[in-house]
Amino acid sequence: MAATDKVRILVVGDSGVGKTSLVHMICHNEPMLNPSWTIGCSVDVKLHDYKAGTPAEKTYFIELWDIGGSSSHKNSRSIFYSPVNGIILVHDLSNRKSHQNLRKWLAEILNKEGKGIENGYYDDYDPEQFAGNQIPILVIGTKADLAETVKKETLLSRMSSIAEECCADEINLACNQVKYLAPGSSNAVRLSRFFDKVLERRYHSSNNLQTSQSPVVDRRRPAMHYSKSSHVD
Ligand SMILES: Nc1nc2c(ncn2[C@@H]2O[C@H](COP(=O)(O)OP(=O)(O)OP(=O)(O)O)[C@@H](O)[C@H]2O)c(=O)[nH]1
C-alpha cells in the first residue's frame, strides 16, 4: 500500500478547555471518560476522505497535535509549531477568559520565533497578522452542556470575534456527547470542510508549500496513536 499523505493540525487553547477530550471524540467517535493532563504534546490521527463522494476523493491522515495548555511548559512548546498546516483554537463556552486567550494562542503560534513572551503567552498580538495569515483555522467552543446555563446574550456577544478576524468557521459542542458530531450534522460538515481546506492548501493548490520547511525538532517524542477509523464526518 502506498504511503498515505498527511497534514499536521495544531489543537491549542487554555489548560482544561477540553482539547484532549475533543481530539479523542474526533478520532474515535466516542467520549473520553478520564482524560489526563497533557504534558508537552499528544498526537492522535484520523483518516479523512478528501472531497468524499466526488471523483477527486482521496484518503489522507489528519494528525491532530494536542498541545498541553499548562503555562509551565510555555517555553518549550514552540518546538511543536513547525510545520503547521492548520490550527484548531479551542475555548470553553462556560469560561470567557479562555475565549479571550485564543488571540494569545494564535499569536504564539504565528510568532514561533520566540519574541515577546510574557505571562505565559506571546503578548505582541497584532490583528494585521491574522489578516495576512494563510493557515486554515477552525474555532471550537466546548462544554456546550455547561454553557446552557450561561446567559444567551453573553454567549452570543463573545462568539465570532476571533473567528471573524481570521475568517475561520466556528463549532460549538460538548466533548462528552457524540451527537454534537453526528454524521450529517452541521458540526460534522463544518469539521469535514475544514479538513478539506487544510488538505486543499497543502496538496491541491499552487501555494502548496509547507508553512515552514524547517524540520520538526521533537525531543519529547510524543506518543502516536494511529486510529484506523475511516469514519467520515
Ligand atoms: N461537561 C463537560 N466537560 C468536559 C467537556 N470537555 C472536556 N471536559 C472535561 O474537562 C476536563 C479537562 O478536559 P481535557 O480534555 O483534559 O482538557 P485539555 O484542554 O486537554 O487540558 P490540558 O491537557 O491541561 O491542556 C476533563 O475533566 C474533561 O472530562 C465538555 O464538553 N463538557
Number of helices: 8
The helicity comes to 25-40%
CATH architect. name: 3-Layer(aba) Sandwich
Shape: globular
Listing every helix as H and every strand as E from the N terminus to the C terminus, the arrangement reads EHEEEHHEEHEHHHEHE
CATH superfamily: P-loop containing nucleotide triphosphate hydrolases
In whole angstroms, the N-to-C terminal distance is 24 Å
* Average pLDDT metric: 81
The multimeric state of the shown protein is single chain
Number of domains: 1
The biggest sheet amounts to:
7 strands, mixed
Bound molecules: guanosine-5'-triphosphate
Low-confidence stretches: 114-122, 211-233
Provide structural commentary.
The chain has 233 residues and is α/β, with parallel strands linked by helices. It has a single domain (6-212), classed as 3-Layer(aba) Sandwich (Rossmann fold), CATH 3.40.50. Helix content is 27%, strand content 22%. It has 8 helices and 9 strands. The chain has helices at 19-28, 96-100, 102-110, 127-132, 144-147, 152-158, 161-165, 186-203, and strands at residues 6-12, 41-50, 58-67, 86-92, 117-118, 121-122, 137-142, 169-172, 224-226. It has a 7-stranded mixed sheet with strand order 8-7-4-1-3-2-9, sandwiched between helices. Strands 5-6 form a two-stranded antiparallel ribbon. Strand 2 (41-50) and strand 3 form a beta hairpin. It starts with 5 loop residues before the first strand and ends in a 7-residue tail after the last strand. Residues 114-122 and 211-233 have low confidence and may be disordered. The protein binds guanosine-5'-triphosphate (GTP). Guanosine-5'-triphosphate binds at residues 15-21, 35, 37-38, 68-70, 142-143, 145-146, 174-176.
